[in-house]
Amino acid sequence: MRQALGRGLEALIPGGGEKLAAVEEGAQAVLSIPLASIRPNHLQPRKNFNPAKLNELAQSIKENGLAQPIIVSREAGGDAYELIAGERRLRASQLAGLTHIDAVVKDPLPDKQRLAIALIENLQREDLNPIEEAVGYLRLMKEFSINQTQMSEVVGKSKSAVSNTLRLLELPELVQKALEFDEISEGHARALLAIQNKSVILDAFNKVVSDKMSVREVEDYVRALQGELSPSSSKKRVATKVKSADISSMESTLQKHLGTKVEIITKKSLTKGFVKIHFYDLADFDRILKMLIK
Q1: Taking the domain 5-129, which CATH number applies?
Q2: Would you please indicate which residues are annotated as catalytic (active-site) residues?
């Protein structure tokens, strides 16, 4: 069972925990409001929503109803609302074809408190991917001038867990994007963090994806790069086909130009091959396509 959201909020905003705890315990009325009258939270920490999981949630809502109401604030002078917490539930309800949704309606809130509620709710529900979680920690730490120890108390996790998550933001942007979109796991990303040089991380990342390495294989490969394993012992787990410096340089140039992962795969003769360009959603695809046809 997740930690109560109010406890985290109380650590940031005195009295905020009691108010939100009352909401969670049902002390505040739940209203049925039109979906069309709700606008997204302009401070929403989540950027990506897995379509398959949204469809699963939509099906569950169709069959069983909404398990917990969303939280909204009433816009001044009207019947419009802004979402505070529960965007997955809101989107899934729209997919389910609902016209109204159960919501706890709060008075207008300052942006700082709205951000805290949205971030903590997502963090404690484990609704964020690792990069969104790290960005959420960083945002809360900056907004409320707290350190990692205090952050761990807010979200009910160990200091080392918070620290390890924040370290993911040290990875090159390309690797962070791959982690956001499940191209690699958090275990893969943590293994790559052991490499100090960012260009070497990118080379290793390309190999991880092209060879479909397991986390254990990545760990062995990274240790081999650092000289902690003999090449022969690493070769048993990871069959490496080292790319030439020219190919690696061309990959790096294309990646910087296109802003996405690029692989150059050559045939045995090295005179033939193909270029593999990754995209992470349709908007990313359109962006890359426009750059290519200029």
Answers
A1: 3.90.1530.10
A2: 87
